[in-house]
Amino acid sequence: MICLIVDHHPVISSGLAQMVRASFPGWQVDIAHTVAAAIEQAGAHQPEVVLISLHMPDNSGLALLGHLQQHDPHSRRTASIVIADAPDADTARLCERLGAHGFMSRAHAFTAIAPAIRAVCARQKYFEPAPDIATPVPAPIRFTPRQRDIVDLLLIGYSNKQIACTLNLSSGTVKNYIFDLMRMISVSSRLEMALKIRDSGYQRS
């Protein structure tokens, strides 16, 4: 069995690696300090378990979750556990939507890591706290007509260049719109923005 730990902090990643080796003797434990390195290692070694720090220096850990789900859409091989600095139900739900099998706070990682790994290896979920699926859906986000044009295309997967060509705008203008939308919705990536807009009940024109 292979476990890949993705965390930019050498001390934390080394400590997690020691915990995994102590709890699961004989496992191979690899460490990646960037999302790019994690994607490369995951492709080369196909780990059974991936422990992902949510906040990484080169990209959000959400990007790695999205990559793993895209390349293993039915979760047949790789089980992922997200470790967040300050977990909350909204973040847990988002991670679950992106394919995470487990979710825990960094403060509890060293005590919870073994039971979490056992759970996901048994194809069960381990969430701390458990996502509050019954939380009411927030009210739809209000956009200007031009913002709606861009959001509609964003939700069907258009790139900035495709949006610019479709709406007869410059790439720079589209980039500014995307930046303003991300800031308005309080997200850090296009993927997170698309999920948050869908969760708000937004209906495309």
Walk me through this protein's architecture:
There is one protein chain. With 205 residues, the protein is an alpha/beta fold. It folds into two domains: 126 residues, Rossmann fold, CATH 3.40.50.2300; 55 residues, Winged helix-like DNA-binding domain superfamily/Winged helix DNA-binding domain (Arc Repressor Mutant, subunit A). The protein contains nine helices and six strands. A six-stranded parallel beta sheet has the order 2-1-3-4-5-6, sandwiched between helices. Strand 3, helix 3 and strand 4 form a beta-alpha-beta unit. The chain starts with a strand and ends in a 6-residue tail after the last helix. About 2% of the residues have low confidence.
Q: Which CATH class of the largest domain?
A: Alpha Beta
Name the poorly predicted regions. Answer: 131-135
Number of helices: 9
Largest sheet properties = 6 strands, parallel
Percentage of β-strand residues: 5-15%
| Class from helix and strand fractions | alpha/beta
The CATH superfamily of the largest domain is Response regulator
Q: Looking at CATH, which topology of the largest domain would you report?
A: Rossmann fold
**Shape verdict:** elongated
Query: Using only CA atoms, what is the Rg?
Result: 18 Å
Strand order across the biggest sheet?
A: 2-1-3-4-5-6
Q: Percent helix among the residues?
A: 40-55%
CATH architecture label name of the largest domain: 3-Layer(aba) Sandwich
Distance between the termini: 48 Å
- Please report the total strand number as a whole number: 6
- Please tell me the total number of domains: 2
Write down the secondary-structure element order. EHEHEHEHEHEHHHH
Instruction: Quote the average pLDDT.
Output: 83
